[in-house]
TrEMBL record:
<dbReference type="InterPro" id="IPR000182">
    <property type="entry name" value="GNAT_dom"/>
</dbReference>
<dbReference type="InterPro" id="IPR016181">
    <property type="entry name" value="Acyl_CoA_acyltransferase"/>
</dbReference>
<dbReference type="GO" id="GO:0016747">
    <property type="term" value="F:acyltransferase activity, transferring groups other than amino-acyl groups"/>
</dbReference>
<dbReference type="Pfam" id="PF00583">
    <property type="entry name" value="Acetyltransf_1"/>
</dbReference>
<protein>
    <recommendedName>
        <fullName>N-acetyltransferase domain-containing protein</fullName>
    </recommendedName>
</protein>
<feature type="domain" description="N-acetyltransferase">
    <location>
        <begin position="115"/>
        <end position="250"/>
    </location>
</feature>
Amino acid sequence: MDVRVQRSVIANLSLRPKAIEVGPFVIGWDPTTDSRFINYATPQLDAVVTTADVTALVAAFRDIGRVPRLEYVASCAPDLEQQLIDAGFSVEARHDYLVCFPDSLSAPATPDGFEFAEPATDEQRASAVTVQNEAFGADPVATLADVARVRRMQDNGGVVMLVRSNDGVCVATGQATAPRAGVSEVAGIAVGKAFRRRGVAGALTAAITGQLFTTGVDLAWLEASGKESWRVYERVGYVPTGKRLYIAHD
């Protein structure tokens, strides 16, 4: 399972507008944003990493004006963490990832007063980004680059879904990466503060996951950073499976 998820991470980064291969690493670089959660690297599977490789990776990040940072499934590069720490990196977080299969998905009913839809216009995409940014503490204003990023995800085969209240206002959103080898990552599940604890997050996660399964995906995965979100995901059929490491050189 770890290998399939790590392969998915590599594929996702390779779809960035300016993916860069640096020795045994791939950097996903998007020149339109300096977000450390979009611009980061991951090791290739079965990579043999040397001190020189780590030095070259840091230099490559400096060349593009981004913070040297990696995300990866820990078991797929068991010795890499210490190499990075020796080079001045610090661990940001260790997150569990959870997986869901078609026969384990439990989709709840859509909560009353809400409807789910895929954004079809740039205005709708912008509203989805605004909800996401507010939920994650970023600048709530959606830029043209943000909207283009959402559109590009859809064009590449990913899933983007928004939740609207009865008056047509976007109150929640989430997405999933373009499937690769039957695997997709569900991410960015965000619900506006005034609409939380109504079952929206779980129903949205299940709706996105269910749509993936209709396209032939047989493994959906996501990360839970806290117990509250963990419970939401487990209720719709996700189970904890492995560990991912976030590590950066600030």
